[in-house]
């Protein structure tokens, strides 16, 4: 695990405030040279500091206005094969392995309740999946963020 120095954290705070900021804008904001910012950005990217940029795409205009969380119970010996098969379902946009009674928390997008039923059926049809529990998202109340965490450091 790499650690970030004060300048790295300042750069990350600036990016959290304005994720689309250019290298030149970041250099101006931080009072640094463009080359310094570019070098730091390259090093941060190589260290894995940045998550996927696809995360910012809204599925609503693509025809998927609803989001749900599917808790999936899987036979442990089939877990990796089940995850691989679930990953083939296009409406699955994210999944986390969990400790505790639920094995996977799968985030899906869907067109409507009937579409959600179909997607849940596809997950249930995966070999090794024992059962699912599905909850429709009523709305994102706290979006993904790191600025408050960065401010604490």
Automatic annotation (TrEMBL):
Transmembrane segments: none annotated. One of its GO terms (molecular function) is sequence-specific DNA binding. Keywords: DNA-binding, Transcription, Transcription regulation. PROSITE patterns: HTH_ASNC_2. The keyword DNA-binding applies. Pfam families: AsnC_trans_reg (PF01037), HTH_24 (PF13412). Residues 4-65 form the HTH asnC-type domain. One of its GO terms (biological process) is response to amino acid. This is DNA-binding Lrp family transcriptional regulator. It comes from Agromyces atrinae.
């Amino acid at each position: 695990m790499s650690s970030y120095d004060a300048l790295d954290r300042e750069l990350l705070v600036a990016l959290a405030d304005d994720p689309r900021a250019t290298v030149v804008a970041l250099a101006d904001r931080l009072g640094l040279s463009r080359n310094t910012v570019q070098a730091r950005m390259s090093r941060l990217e190589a260290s894995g500091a940045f998550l996927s940029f696809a995360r910012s795409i809204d599925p609503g205009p693509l025809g998927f206005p609803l989001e749900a969380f599917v808790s999936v119970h899987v036979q442990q010996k089939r877990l990796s094969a089940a995850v691989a098969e679930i990953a083939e379902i296009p409406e699955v946009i994210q999944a986390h392995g969990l400790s505790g009674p639920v094995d996977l928390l799968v985030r899906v997008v869907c067109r409507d309740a009937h579409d959600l039923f179909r997607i849940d059926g596809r997950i249930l049809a995966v070999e090794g999946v024992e059962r699912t529990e599905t909850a429709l998202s009523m709305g994102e109340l706290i979006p993904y963020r790191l600025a408050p965490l960065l401010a604490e450091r």
